[in-house]
Amino acid sequence: MKLLMALLALQFCFVGFHIVSRVALNIGVSKVVYPVHRNIIALILLSPFAYVLEKKERAPLTFSLLVQFFFLAILGITANQGFYLLGLYYASPTFASAMQISIPAVTFVMASSLR
């Protein structure tokens, strides 16, 4: 029952995020600036936890790892958020929530077709 309640709470958080993002876009927040602010806030909130909890287990931070993290951030996370906001700008928060639920099914179909 706890897992079900946690999943339900997570879905409500996603719905709230979709609504807040749509309101921000309607107010006039730039689709480029919004993901940057979102990532900076996430960095500020998650960095202390990552530092304390992974302090003894993490590998040393090398230049190669920093370059890989940079490209992962630009191509993976920032591009994903940018396309999400572009889609949300042209659609509704309800449609964004419905599409988010269908991502595992689409991923499965793509993986099956590509073997």
Q: Using the alpha-carbon principal axes, give the shape.
A: globular
Nearest-integer average pLDDT: 84
The number of helical runs is 5
Question: What Rg do the Cα atoms give?
Answer: 17 Å
Mind describing the biggest β-sheet?
none
Number of strands: 0
Multimerization status: single chain
Range of strand content = under 5%
Question: What is the structural class?
Answer: mainly alpha
Low-confidence stretches: none
Total domains, how many?
1
Helix fraction bin: over 70%
Element-by-element helix/strand order:
HHHHH
What is the CA–CA distance across the termini?
36 Å
Please render the helix and strand layout as text.
Elements: H1 2-27, H2 33-53, H3 63-90, H4 93-101, H5 103-114
Helix pairs in contact: 1-4
